[in-house]
Specification:
heterodimer, A: about 120 residues, 7-stranded mixed sheet, 4-stranded antiparallel sheet, B: about 120 residues, mainly beta, about 0% helix
Chain lengths: ~120, ~120
Amino acid sequence: GAGVSQTPSNKVTEKGKYVELRCDPISGHTALYWYRQSLGQGPEFLIYFQGTGAADDSGLPNDRFFAVRPEGSVSTLKIQRTERGDSAVYLCASSQRLAGGRDTQYFGPGTRLTVL
Amino acid sequence: AQSVTQLGSHVSVSEGALVLLRCNYSSSVPPYLFWYVQYPNQGLQLLLKYTSAATLVKGINGFEAEFKKSETSFHLTKPSAHMSDAAEYFCAVRGSNFGNEKLTFGTGTRLTIIP
C-alpha cells in the first residue's frame, strides 16, 4: 500500500516568507507526527496529532510554527516569517494505535526546506 | 523524560565482519526502543523495535538488538556486514505510558562498509 507522502520534496524560500508543508499519512492511521531534522542530527519532535486535535505540541520551537489537521487525515505544517535557522528536513510520520501503545511510526521521505 | 546516546558518530567495518552499533537510553518510565535506518535522501525505515515483550528482537535485513535493562542499552548487531548496509542508523526511545508517544532520537551513527 501507499506510504506516507510529503509535498513538496524541496522548498526554497527567502527569509521572512511564509511556507506550508503538506503530509498525507497512511490511510487509516489516526496518529500523525511532525519532526525536524537538521544537518548531521537526529530528528526532533515538533507536534503530534491524534485525529484532528494536537495532542502534544511541546516541540514547536516558537509561535511562528503552526500545524493543522482539520479532517483527521492530511496535515499542513505552517511556518511564518521564515528564518535561515528554519532550514532543515521536515519529516512526517503516521501510526495506527495499537494496544499498549506499541504502534510503529512510519515516516515519509521529508521536505527539504532551504531559507535563503 | 527520555533520551538516547549513540556512541560513535561514524563506524567502519569490513564486508563480512560483525556490525555493532551502540545505543544507551535514559527513561523515567519503562521504555519502548527503536532502531531506524536512513539511506541517502530517503526517509526513515524501521529496522526493529522493543515494546516490552522478548528482550532479543530480530528485525529486517538480518539485524537484531537486545534490550538490557541493567545496562540501559539497546545495541544493534548484524553478524556479517553487506555493502548494502551502508547508511545512517538512528536509535530512538519513547515512554511506554499513555501520553508519551513522541520519539526521542539519538544523533545517529553513519555506517561505512569497507570492501
